[in-house]
Amino acid sequence: MIEILLVLLTGVAAGALNAIGGGGTFVALPALVAFGLSPVTANALSRIALVPGAVASAWVYRRELTPIGATSTKALTAASLIGGGVGAGLLLVLPGSSFGAAAPWLLAFATLILAFGRSLSQKLSSVLGRSVGMSARAVLIGQFFLAVYGGYFGGAVSIMMLALWSVGLGLDASASNPMRIAQLAAVFLSATVLFLFASDALSAPLFLAAMLVGAVAGGFAGAHLARRLAGRLLQGVILAIAATMTVLYFLRG
After folding, report:
1. Strand, coil or helix: what is 7?
2. 220-247: pLDDT as tens digits
3. CA 167 to CA 135: how far, in whole Å?
4. Contact predicate 40/199, CB 8 Å
5. What is the pLDDT averaged over residues 79-90?
6. Is the pLDDT of residue 218 over 80?
7. What pLDDT shows up at residue 133?
8. Cα-to-chain-centroid distance, residue 103
9. Whose CA is closest to 176, among 161, 156, 155?
C-alpha cells in the first residue's frame, strides 16, 4: 500500500509538471524503475498513465489554442500522432537493453535542453531575426521527429517543441504553451495505443491505476497553477529533478 501511495503521488507530480512546464517523465520513469519495473515497461506504463493527465490539461487550455505559424492545427496534430506511434514502435521493436543503455544519455540530453534550450533559442532568434521563419512544411517535419523522440522516450519533448517554435517562428513560449500541452497529449496518445496492445505495461495494473489517477489530478490542477506560478521558479525545480535523476541513472549503470 505504501508503494501504491508513492506511485499515486508520483503521478500527481508528473501530471502537474507536464501541465506547467514539462518534465513529468523525469519523475515517473525513474520512480517506476525504482519500484522494480524494467526500464522499457516503466517507460510504457508511465506513458499510458500520463495520457489522461495531458488530456485534462489540454481541456483546461482548450479555448486558448492558437495555430503555430502557418501550420494548421490538424496537420500539426497529425504529425504528432504519427511520430508518437513511430517512436513507440521503435521502443517495442528494439531490444530492451538498447533502451536501458540509451536512457541515461537521453536523460542527459533532455536535461541539457531543459537547462540551455530556451536561452539558446533566444540567442538564435536574435541572430536569425524574427522575419526569418520556418515554412509550414519545415515545422511539420520538425514536429514529426520530435514526436518520434517523444514516443520513444518523452523526456523534455514539450520543451523541445517550444524551442523549435521559438527559434523557427519567433513565438513566445507562454503564448504557445496551450498548443504545447495539446501536442504532448497527441504524442502520448498514439504511443499509448501501441503500448496497451504490444507491451507488458498491464502486468502492473495497480501501479498503472495509481499513477493514472494521480496524473489526472496533477494535470488538471497543474494547468490552473501554471497561470499563477513564477516561470523561473518552476523551471529551476524541473531542472533540479532532471539533473538529479540523470546522475542517479548513470550511477545505477
Report:
1. helix
2. 888 887 767 666 676 676 677 667 767 8
3. 12
4. yes
5. 93
6. yes
7. 64
8. 15
9. 161
Secondary structure (H, E, C), 137-166: HHHHHHHHHHHHHHHHCCCCHHHHHHHHHH
Report CA Rg, the chain: 17
What would the grid cell of residue 66 be? 492558437
Instruction: Give residue for cell 519495473.
Output: 37
**DSSP code at position 68:** B
- What residues contact residue 130 under an 8 Å CB cut-off, 6+ apart? 170
C-alpha cell of residue 117: 534550450
State residue 131's pLDDT score. Answer: 45
- Confirm if 186 and 69 have CB atoms less than 8 A apart: no
Q: How many CB atoms lie within 10 A of CB 205?
A: 10
Better pLDDT: 190 or 115: 190
Please name every residue paired with 89 in a beta bridge, in sequence order, or none if there are none: none
68 beta partners: 71
156: Cβ contacts below 8 Å, ≥ 6 apart: 22, 23, 25, 26, 110, 111, 113, 114, 117, 242
Which segments within the chain are labelled E, that is strand?
none
Q: What would the mean pLDDT of 152-166 be, rounded to a whole number? A: 77
Using one digit for the tens of pLDDT, what is the confidence trace for 137-150?
A: 999 999 999 999 88
Cell of 21: 512546464
User: If DSSP codes are grouped into helix, strand and coil, which group holds residue 229?
Assistant: coil
In this prediction the pTM is 0.77
